[in-house]
Structure formats: C-alpha cells, structure tokens
Amino acid sequence: MTPSLLRVLVAPLVAAALAAGATGASAATGPTGPAPAAGGPGAVRHTASEEPASVLAYWTEDRMAAARPIGRLIGGAADGLLDAPPGYGASGREHQADGGDAPEWTGGGAVARTTGRVFLSMDGRDFTCTASVVRSRNASTVVTAGHCLKDGSGAWASKWVFVPGYDDGEEPYGRYTAREMLVTPEWARRTDDSRDFGAAVLRESGGAPVQEATGAQRISFSGDHTGSVRSFGYPARSPYDGRTLRTCDGPTHADRGGTTARGMSCDMTEGSSGGPWFAGFDSGSGRGTVVSVVSFKYASDAGTQYGPVLGASERRVFDEAQDA
Q1: Does 39 map to a domain?
Q2: Tell me: the pLDDT tens digits for 8-48?
Q3: Tally of structural domains, the chain
Q4: What are the Cα distances from residue 46, in Å, to 14, 78, 172, 184?
C-alpha cells in the first residue's frame, strides 16, 4: 500500500539495481542486459526548439546560483496541489528531502568528469538536477531522472544545459545544450515512480561530442538489483549548496511503498535528482556500471533514497537516444 505522505521531487541518489558481475575498473563499454521485448512502447520524445546560443546566454552566473534544486517542496500536504513543483504527485512520495551526511567526492577519476550539473526551466521556474555521460553510439547521450526532463504528464523542460565536471563554479569541460529529450512512456503518461528515467541527447560543443571531452560510463539494463551501489549527485538544498559532487554508498533493498524501485541509505537533498548509481564502482579509476539514477524519497524517511530498476522500458529510451 502506498503511504499517504507528502512527496517532493526527489533528488536522493536513486537506489539502483546492482548489475551482476559488473566491474567498475574496466573501460567504459556499451549497455549490457537483454534486448527490449519486441512490441513494447517506445520512448516519449521531445525536440528542443530553442537556439543553443540563447540557452547558453540565459544561464548567467546569477541565474545558475538562483536555480532551485528540482523537487523542492513548495507547500501543502494534500494530493494534487496546483502549486506543487515538477514531479509532485498523489503517491505520497517526494522527489527529494533534507539531509547532511553525504561526503564530498575528492577521489577524482572518471566519475568527476562524467557526472555534471543540469540547469533547466520548467513551467517558468529555473531548477537544477544531475546527469551522467554514458557510453553511446552517438557519443552525446546523458542519463538522468525523468522528472529532470518532463513534469510527469505535464510540461517538458526548456533551456536544458549540462555542465560536466562542475566544481564550485568551475566548468572544466564547458556546457552542452540538449537537442532531444526522452523519457519512459510510464513516466510521461502516468508519472510512474518505478519508471522515473530519461535521457538527453546533447549538441556538440566546440565541434566535438561530450564523450570526447569527458569519457563515458558503462550502463546496464539487466534488471539485477542485489548488492551494494555508490551514488553521486549535486544536492543543492540545505545543508548542501550544489557546488560540489557528493556521494553515498551501501546495500540496496526493495521499496515497500508501492514501487519496484530499490532503496539505499543516503541523505542527499534536491539537486542530486538524476545522479548515477553505480554497481562495481572502482574508487581508483572512478568507473563503474550505471544501474539506476536518483529518483525519490519518502517525506517520512529523509535518510533513504530510491531509484528505478533499469529494464526493457529504460533500454528503449536509451536506444532511441543513442541513435538520435
């Protein structure tokens, strides 16, 4: 039974499923896991219409500093509030909550290059999220939470820009605007927290795709979900400020609140939404296998974050993205 709790767009690194046998020290390779079942619904897709130059110009230093972490609870305790933030629904889940014990990642490596902050507008408000570069055929695909791209069955994000390796205001690999956004049909049509996953296809910067500048992480859609994971994100709600990459690690467990997502102990706050969960993460190289993304928390349990188990629906989203 779904608890009747407040829901705020989660930014707790979503507890992702552990990919069996994944080794983080190996070089980044393509996606693993079974091919999507034939005949399944494809991704819901949106083409960005804004001029890239206008998007880049929009995100001044002041606007970036003022952007709210996505999923911040605006107010009220009833279902279906009209003034709720993107992703707010009637399930009692909140996409993000308070926290304070996720340490800053100081280990460098691939994860410090491939993880980045996202800045976007949704329904006339500016927000921030997290995304990760994954190995793809077009070398231009990042994965994130569905609610960092689309407000459930509502509006798509606009002015979407990815800043890989963001560190205390530094942008060592530049900025990349989105040209295509894709989410699962379950998220786009029913705001299904079990399928809160999406991908963005980025325009090139300086004549080169993002993967050439940052490298990429392996991603798996095997649906396995046992063992430990390490999550990363840019939490921006107090006590965090979104300026540094943070991390959590530990075992995952099933959600008993009505979704098929997995949970793990982590108190990262809003802003970390969409951050990667790694199985087989190697701290020396900063590599692992992405098996989920930060999705939601329950209002009654700020210390546990949840993430979707990546399967056939998410694989279709990724396949359409990497061929876009």
Answers
A1: no
A2: 333 333 333 333 333 333 334 466 655 544 446 799 999 99
A3: 1
A4: 24, 31, 28, 12
